[in-house]
Amino acid sequence: MIFISYPTVSRSLTAVSVSVLLGLAVGCGGGGSSTPSSNNLSTPADTSGITPEKLKAAETKGMTQGITSTFNAVTSVASNAPALNEVTTRANGLQTRSAPQGRAADSSSSSSSSSSSGIVDETVRWVDELINVSTVTQSGNVFTIDPDEGQICSSSELSTDEASQCNALLPHFTMTVTVNQVVNDEVTAATTALNYDATPFAKVDFTETTGYYEIELPGTKTLLTGIGQVDPQLAVPVPDTMNGAIRLAFAAPTENSGTLTLSIPQTVEIINTAPGEEINFNLASTNKLMELTANAATNDLGLEIGMGALDILAPGKDSTDNPITQRLVMQALSGKLALTDNGNKLQLTGLTANTLQFKVNNQDAMTLNLEPLDALLDASNANASVLTLQKALKFNLHIQNLSGVFSDIFDTADPNAYLTATANAPSGLTITELGETLAKVDNGTLDVSVDNNGTVESLSAPAGSCIDSSGSSPQVAACQ
């Protein structure tokens, strides 16, 4: 057994909040980035030369590379991409193009780097202080870190109530670090678990270039329930069922590239039956709920979405405060976005919304469907960007103001108010920029229609015509 004393403890630590303990996990998992798991390493780790001080050293290893390099690469690529600039300019309705390229990149990259470094520094400080006031025991390649409430909770910086909460809660928390690889007596791969009553509620895994942070929902239920039982003042409503896991992974092979992946390794299920607080949430497991990749050296940027089936059932109230049942269902939402050719081309592949339904009292209040769409935006010519549909555009949206749930949209509680929108165009259609507010349509007809409670606005732009967006709404016009 190794005991480490520490003369002073900051108030942020002695408050003994869950956020500090989560910070501890992030710190010890700081080897960087995404899966594969360090548990996959086949050679048993020789931990005979590992001390608590070396465990602390492992906390910071790769942390800046894993987090900061990913976001710096993203901001560097995105801020210098003509294709993305074209999209954001149009989306914001700007009449002129943005300032010269490069300035935004420098500013955002600096901001991102500064923000990431601040988080890293604060986490490392928390970890260092907490390990310094903990008892560390070792069994093989597993280290158990048990915070010492005798030191932490006796701090003069704590009020009487805070000290009481500290003494009641802290004995329930431990951290276990399973060392999976050691090179030259340095930890290069490990799995960390944060535990409440020996049940893990958060896990962190890292190798030298990969790692992940994972929230375990069954353990989170144990954590929240336990805290409320120990100290009713800290009690919060806890669902009856909490299953599944949510994982955020990093991979940072170089200082100028990285991948960030949000995934659902186990189906998320949250059920609560308390009257007035009923909820049934189900999100199917998926390897890539969202994945962002960036390489500043090649100016490549990619975003992929792969949401599985979603089903949310929850109570609500109508416009007159009467109870209603609301349900959101989606079969899938997926698609890929890739920025290539030094930022000049933006490729959209397989963007699909398969069918989104929002129901009120089991009746459709909204339906949305987008069939798989491929498109390429080529901004190589700064004065004549070209959008090409590589698959047909087929989009449908219908909203009905059932029970007045969309009163903010329609500015009325009338349940008969509705909005229907459609957009259709064939594969091969192109839209070429001719000026700041003028674009030419070729190789097909673009049809857009919006019916807002009987007021219909439509646009049908055949091949050879132009779309003029200088007014309050786009209009078909002769090309100049």
Mean pLDDT equals: 80
Largest sheet descriptor: 6 strands, antiparallel, barrel
Output the structural class.
Answer: alpha+beta
What proportion strand?
Answer: 35-45%
Strand order of the largest sheet: 9-10-13-14-12-11
Tell me the total number of β-strands.
25
How widely separated are the two ends?
Answer: 83 Å
Stretches where pLDDT is under 50 for at least 5 consecutive residues are 1-35, 94-117
Radius of gyration, in Å, reads 27 Å
Helical stretch count? 10
Based on CA inertia axes, which overall geometry fits? globular
Counting structural domains, the number is 2
Helix content range of the residues, please? 10-25%
Short structural description:
This protein is of the alpha+beta class and 480 residues long. It is 24% helix and 43% strand. It folds into two domains: 302 residues, no CATH class; 134 residues, no CATH class.
Structure description:
By secondary structure, the protein is α+β, with helices and mostly antiparallel strands. It folds into 2 domains: about 300 residues, no CATH class; about 130 residues, no CATH class. Helices cover about 25% and strands about 45% of the residues. It has 10 helices and 25 strands. The chain has a 6-stranded antiparallel barrel with strand order 9-10-13-14-12-11. Helix 2 crosses helix 6, helix 3 runs antiparallel to helix 6 and helix 4 packs antiparallel against helix 6. It is globular. The N and C termini lie far apart (about 85 Å). The N terminus is likely disordered.
